[in-house]
Amino acid sequence: MDSATAFREAFRSSKHIVVIAGAGLSAASGIPTFRDGGGMWRSLSATALATPEAFEANPSLVWQFYHYRRTKCLEAKPNSAHQVVAKMSLPAQLRKVAPEAKSFHLITQNVDRLSVDTLNALVNVEASPSSSTADTPTGDKPTDKKPQKRPVFPNSILEMHGPIFDVRCTACDHCEEDRTDPLCPALGAANASFANYTDAGTKEINIPLADLPRCRACGALARPGVVWFGEKPYYLDEINSIVYKADMCLVIGTSSTVRPASTYAYRVQRHGGKVAVFNLDPSEKDEQADFVFRGGCESVLPSLFPELA
């Protein structure tokens, strides 16, 4: 039996499925992974900028880095891997490939919201009225109908690092999603001068504090609403409970280097569950999984789950 067939059989008998997703899930959508795209920004590593200390020292620099990434996320479109994973959140879809499934959760380290947007598009299936009577099968006048919503597994997507479109106050902690582009004129002007990631990472532009994003509630300086290195990820207690009962774990587009997410697959395997890794370049630790699929997840996942493609 080949590995694809063995994996499908194991998946088919799974009851509690969890997906751990990282930057590789969105790479095919044009979003550079956190450690690539040159990996440097003004001679600093991207990871060095994703800290509270970096923001305190140079909020202009950190905001330019995140605003550039926000723009790329706004431009990005979900790829076929997002579609497959999103359909797993719908019980009627998941049971095509896992008839005994009782729960499904996507734990994503990504901040781009592509998984959430993909699921929302699937859930809100509108019975759109036709534009004219000629368009209706019976010739009847079109009628207004409320959107028909498909049932979804509860809390099926957990964004443990938050969304990049959230803007959080540094004083009153007010937080709201804001997809305005540009977020403020000064950041828009900086973005307009960047030809690409490398160019953006080498140009020195100092934006005055007063011209950076401000809190709409109190007017204080705002910061990106994502979880930075050194900060506590969201939903840890809930995630621990999910991992504890999972009997199938898919690790998609992430490395075994960032804790705590890097420990989840090991914990599933330790209590008897199966682990499948999907990565362009699986690490030595990834090879310890029950199933390893090398390649872009945007092509591998649809080939393994044609019913969900």
Automatic annotation (TrEMBL):
PROSITE patterns, per the entry: SIRTUIN
UniProt binding sites for Zn(2+): 169, 172, 215, 218
Region (Disordered): 127-152
Locations listed in the record: Mitochondrion
GO molecular function, one term: histone deacetylase activity, NAD-dependent
Primary localization: mitochondrion
SUPFAM superfamilies (UniProt xref): DHS-like NAD/FAD-binding domain
UniProt keyword annotations, A-Z: Metal-binding, Mitochondrion, NAD, Transferase, Zinc
Biased composition (Low complexity): 127-137
Deacetylase sirtuin-type domain span: 1-309
Catalytic residues in the record: 161
Keyword NAD among record annotations: yes
Gene Ontology cellular-component terms listed: mitochondrion; nucleus
InterPro entries linked: DHS-like_NAD/FAD-binding_dom, NAD-dep_sirtuin_deacylases, Sirtuin, Sirtuin_cat_small_dom_sf, Ssirtuin_cat_dom
Pfam families linked: SIR2
UniProt record similarity statement: Belongs to the sirtuin family. Class I subfamily.
PANTHER family cross-referenced by the UniProt entry: NAD-DEPENDENT PROTEIN DEACYLASE SIRTUIN-5, MITOCHONDRIAL-RELATED (PTHR11085:SF10)
Name of protein: DHS-like NAD/FAD-binding domain-containing protein
Organism: Schizophyllum amplum
